[in-house]
Amino acid sequence: MALVEDSYNESRYIYDINAYNFYFRRKVNNLDFEGNGVNVSVDKNTLEISNYNFSWNKEALPDASKAISIEKAKKNFNEKIGIELAYMIKYDQKAKKNNAKLVYTFKNGSRPIDAITGEVINYGYYDPLSDMGASNNEMMAKEAAVLTPEEIKEVENTKKFITKDQALEIAKKYVKVEDKYKLEAASLYTDYNGTNASWSFSWNYNNPEKNEYAYISISIDAVTKEVRSISKYDSTTDNASKDGNPKYSLDKSKEAAEKFISMIAPEKFAQTEYRSDIFRNSNIEKPVSYNFNFI
């Protein structure tokens, strides 16, 4: 994997406003594997890992030596997709207003060219970077199936999946759950074809009187015992950082992200490189978070 450089990190604003986000993209034979990689968010003020997830396909890959030439690919792109002039509206965060832009955009949608056949691949909007984010997680959630208590008991009696207690023991190695948290959910999910499953745990803390809220969630592969995702949020840490500068720099947070991935998924980390993510917002006057991609 390789860390994805992001030239816009100095002015990044995303939902997780108190963290730096790093994305490591998977590399196979020195080629990027779009949509495959590891994403890690690091709290700016504590260096704790606030979010971790990865996408890693196991399908057999085509032989790159059989790819058509780049000249042929460009010709097919111009003939079958092409670009055209269009107007778009871009919001200027500093000026607090919308600006009309004249841009060149895809004439027939953003779709890739099959490097073996030369044909356009038609399967909707194609955005490899978004595959590592919410879109991919939402798709996986829709495809997942929550097992009933009876089904969970049956699964636990098999040798294929680890038990709830085993998964919980693994989870607590990677997330610190303080006494104030309450375990709200512990579920076993199967994937869309029922061949694999993951244990998902979530803890919540809510104190309306102090206006404090926090949560921790983690999912563990029920077969490989790998940590598939981690997500954390604490309003007290969030509120404390809004009025001041982050305690740790971008580079320091990046080091923490690399250290965490190399510890939790060393084989995957070795197949990524750091790349910039140009699709994130870059016009925030006072940024409070940054995004890094390892692909």
Automatic annotation (TrEMBL):
Pfam families documented for this protein: DUF4901
| All residue ranges annotated as the YcdB/YcdC repeated domain in the record | 18-56, 164-288
For this entry, the protein name equals YcdB/YcdC repeated domain-containing protein
What organism does the UniProt record list as the source? bioreactor metagenome
